């Protein structure tokens, strides 16, 4: 984006009185100079333009400004790094659900991995992503999909699967605090210290678990880290979006109301299953995504008058009705008098 500002003065002959000073900030009409002064100003402009043209024409060809690629102005340079975060989250959750034999959830996470890879491939084809990064990412994605499906069908060696789980544990725990920290830059100093500290702690925890230095509860905790870090990565996405909306309210107009509605519906459809099998991590991630990512952005769109009242009212009624029905049906299936008991079992166990 910034590259487009460095253009020769003689590349375009301006037509307004203010372009010599503020190219993109024209003066209001009441501040324009008189006609006599305008003539003098025009003569000065012509001389400056002729001088600038002669100066730039003397530059050798290799030193002239090159063309600006469209991707440089439309796509931020660290965009593919955000894709890596989502990819790691999808792969971690894919491993979690593959281990639990949750077929529908495995399909959803697989689609997430494939869709992100399609975007990454497009970035690589447009030379917006370094080729070595793309090759390494392709290897990780291919290995992750193959290992997860082999493990799902019981065809994978336990040692190989353990290595993959350790990889996702260390990777997820290293990325999560770094993403949280970078969200609030430049209001806080830009630093890689959070990610570095988390990486060291993750390696130490995994090593101690393999050496038998942890208790049984500690081993279970380390084994659950990858799933929880993946869930927290997805839970942080709406926090980052809301923070961006707060800092730049105009950005909210770029959000698609129907995309946010689909995000709310997609996460909401996972809630009944997570509640039924008493998977607190799955329930937490799905509920957070429904309320804060999908519905939360719909609220922002409504506040900034980007959607109609009818759209907002329909989304609100539909969300409340679906959550209420999910809690009610779960209590009926388990023959409980109140859905509160279902929530207690979900959080604290039976």
Automatic annotation (TrEMBL):
InterPro entries: MEX1/MEX1-like (IPR034628). It comes from the Eukaryota. The keyword Electron transport does not apply. GO terms for cellular component: chloroplast envelope. Keywords: Membrane, Transmembrane, Transmembrane helix. The chain crosses the membrane at residues 79-98, 105-125, 131-151, 187-209, 221-243, 255-276, 288-305, 311-328. GO terms for molecular function: maltose transmembrane transporter activity. This is Maltose excess protein 1, chloroplastic-like isoform X3. It comes from Durio zibethinus (Durian). The gene is LOC111277757.
